Amino acid sequence: MPTGTYKVTLDIVSPKFSKYKQYKFCNGKLPRLLDIPGFDGILIHIGNTEEDTDGCLLVGKNNVVGKVIESTVTFKALYDKMQEAIENGEEITITIK
Questions:
Q1: Which domain holds residue 27?
Q2: Mind spelling out the 3-state secondary structure of the chain?
């Protein structure tokens, strides 16, 4: 993924991840990065290892080499903050360095 700052939306239901129970609270609407040159469908989601990424971004703590831990708790907290920002009329962006 190229470096840059990208808008994030919570408006699109993920056909793949909406089937999982851990995403019921958000109705399968995962954070999606927009307008990335050469890429489409990059999400922020729960996961613990490289195999879980599917080219997307995982959130959690990086206290164990090669693993993301506390991903579900971290994802829900991040999602709540993003949802609050949207409700306040704020734009959500993420910067990739």
A1: 4-96
A2: CCCEEEEEECCCECCCHHHCHHHHHHCCECCEECCCCCCCCCEEECCCCHHHCCCCEECCEEEECCEEECHHHHHHHHHHHHHHHHHCCCCEEEEEC
